[in-house]
Amino acid sequence: MPEPGLFERSPLWQLTWARTLAFLREPDALFWVFAFPVLMALALGIAFRNPGAQKSHVGVEAGPRAAATMRALEAAPDLEIALLPADEAAAALRRGRISVLVRTADKGGPVLVYDPSRPETRLAHLATVEALERAAGRVDPLPLRTDTIVRPGSRYIDFLIPGLIGLNLLGTGMWGIGFPIVMARQLKLLKRLIATPMRRSHYLLAFMLARMLWLVLEVATIMIFARVAFGIVVRGSWAGFVVVCVVGALSFSAMGLLVACRARTVEAAMGLMNAAMLPMWLLSGVFFSADRFPGVMQPFIRALPLTAANDALRALTNEGAGFAGVIPAVLLLVAWGVGCFGVGLRLFRWD
Amino acid sequence: MSPSAPTSAPPSTEPALLCRGLTKRYGSVVAVDGLDLEVGTGECFGLLGPNGAGKTTTVEILEGLLVPDAGEVRVLGQRWGGGGDRDLRQRLGIQLQETQLQEKLSVEETVRLFRSFYRRGPTPLEVIRSVSLEEKRRSWVGKLSGGQKQRLSVACALVNDPDVLFLDEPTTGLDPQSRRQLWELIEAFRRRGGTVMLTTHYMEEAQRLCDRVAIVDHGKIIALDTPAELIASLGGEHVVEFSVADGLDPEPLAGLPGVSSVHREPRGYALGVREPHVAIPALLAELERQKATLSQLTTHNATLEDVFVSLTGRTLRDA
Ligand SMILES: Nc1ncnc2c1ncn2[C@@H]1O[C@H](COP(=O)(O)OP(=O)(O)O)[C@@H](O)[C@H]1O
Ligand SMILES: [Mg+2]
């Protein structure tokens, strides 16, 4: 703790400290900031863990030469085979429980039934063809050897963690700034404060400083968890990572300020916050890549601050990007932050 | 009960608070309607009036929190918005009618926060002691009783040992004991020479604390004097209220011995009376003469409430 005199006399420090205490004493806020991202990472990390090489499910319809076909397919390591009566086989195919159905006949080769519009069924089809041909005595003209590696940073959880950090920066910035400001306005606490000689800029600055204090805790919690549970580390520039987090947090806090600048009730502010956050939740590539949206939407998606933050964080953690690589993203975040802060401050209502 | 003489330096012929022709409208509602007042240094001035009378609006204009539509305001000789606002605020203590302090901060944390905004003043602990909250200093604001919250709110207004203290309905909704505790606090502040601007809709409060009282109704001051003079204006220290079952000609009442004023009330009549032992027999004789049947008769010492009733024909509570 700093020297008592200084600690007690600095309004900026007192405001920051009061903000921090109020936050730490709010169990709900603590849950959303610290526990939620960790639980999310845990749940999704387990659901989408890479289960080694994926097996393809193939069904063999009960029939005259089904037993021989089964034997042929069993030799292939990547196939999971089931013998099914005719009626069940059709249903299993329809429901996606099997990707390919092999139908045998007394005469001629087997018939392979599958839906070529899905990548995993095409894969299953190829593997089935190969297994059947090999069993029938095919000899490879060119003997190929394979050497498999798993590239670090390519798992789903690697994709997810930076997105969760971005999401948290957004959520904490908006809620952590917007909510207490509107609450203070609704309870006439803002009015009481401006009845003192307090500098108005100190009040808003204290929010930003308090935000920085818990930013450290919040990002550290996720990163330590990601490291311990999934072995995820920042492969690129650490300085870049810190700068993106800090600038991102400030930028989203400025959005929170803008959203809260006039709202008189918490309900009104919540509506505005959700309206501001929803497009980013959907479009900015938190849970799946933003590249999946059509090209016409891309310029809009790229201009969103959360897209910039997520992409930059991903490049830094997974692709080993250097500081220079994330400068455009940082500039975009700065622009958003300065714009929101400027407008928010200008429109700010104290009573 | 007379306004105390200014105690500070000579040039303080300047009143602590002054406003002229103050007007504030909200749409078609005229909240404050051309209000003039002057509060001397060291004086305790009360704005008394029913809900919606314009007390809060007036006080918040004086505090520089609202901008009037018209009129002039001086606080400690200064205008608001002249560049010296923050220095002026260093000398004011303000308690607002509706503020709720941060629930999850302790008493001490709250007072320390407010103390940090001011250059001079007592230590946070001294302030907490002065409002008798030392036992609660580590409790969260959300856990305090109504009276304790209100004392904390006053504590936050006292952290800078202000020259002028504004209190907007500080005791509304409090139990009698908490109310008395607050009154003692205000009296202690006055003994140190502080100026107080108080709003209330409790008569006893204005009567006990204020040197002068302005009775406000519909944004206007309808009477302004010391409580004693206001009561004297009724024409007697006693009030006799009565109602009759049937009709009555009120004309002769004013001429009865000992009766100095007559007011029609919603449920009867109120007489301002100097000597009840003379007036009551005369009243009974007059009723007898008019063949009117008395259905109720009460008498009490005149209060500011009676002044309000005599001026507006309404009681403060159902105004
Ligand atoms: N912000 C506001 N918007 C609209 N009307 C208001 C506002 N503040 C006060 N008023 C109206 O102005 C009048 C005076 O209010 P106020 O000063 O709060 O009275 P008091 O403090 O004496 O109860 C009331 O009729 C009230 O409804
Ligand atoms: Mg009021």
The proportion of residues in beta strands of chain B is 25-35%
- Alpha-carbon Rg of chain B, integer: 22 Å
Q: What string gives the helices and strands of chain B in order?
A: EEEHEHEHHHEHEHEEHEEEHEH
The quaternary structure here is heterodimer
**Share in helix of chain B:** 25-40%
The N- and C-terminal alpha carbons of chain B lie at a distance of: 28 Å
Shape of chain B: elongated
Integer average pLDDT of chain A = 89
- Estimated structural class of chain B: alpha/beta
Let me know the number of strands of chain A. 4
Q: Which ligands occur here? A: adenosine-5'-diphosphate, magnesium ion
Taking pLDDT < 50 over at least 5 consecutive residues as the criterion, the unreliable ranges of chain B are 1-11
Order of helices and strands of chain A: HHHEHEHEEHHHHHHHHH
Mean of residue pLDDT of chain B?
89
* Distance, first to last CA of chain A: 34 Å
User: How many strands of chain B?
Assistant: 13
Largest Cβ-defined interface? A-B, 26 and 29 residues
Q: Percent of residues of chain A in helical segments?
A: 55-70%
Strand order of the largest sheet of chain B: 5-6-7-3-8-9
What is this entry, summarized?
The complex is a heterodimer of chains A (351) and B (319). Chain A is mainly alpha-helical.
Explained architecture:
The complex is a heterodimer of chains A (351) and B (319). Chain A has two domains: 6-48 and 155-347, no CATH class; 56-135, 3-Layer(aba) Sandwich (D-Maltodextrin-Binding Protein, domain 2). In chain A, 38% of the residues are buried. With 351 residues, chain A is mainly α. Chain A contains 14 helices and four strands. Chain A is elongated. Chain A has a four-stranded mixed beta sheet. Mean pLDDT of chain B is 89; it is low at 1-11. In chain B, strand 6 (164-168), helix 6 (176-191) and strand 7 form a beta-alpha-beta unit. Chain B contains ten helices and 13 strands. The longest helix of chain B has 16 residues, at 176-191. Chain B starts with 16 loop residues before the first strand and ends in a 7-residue tail after the last helix. Chain B has a six-stranded mixed beta sheet, sandwiched between helices. In chain B, strands 11-12-10-13 form a four-stranded antiparallel beta sheet. The radius of gyration of chain B is 22 Å and the shape is elongated. Chain B is of the alpha/beta class. Classes of the chains: A mainly alpha (351), B alpha/beta (319). The interface between A and B is medium-sized, with 26 and 29 residues. The structure holds adenosine-5'-diphosphate (ADP) and magnesium ion.
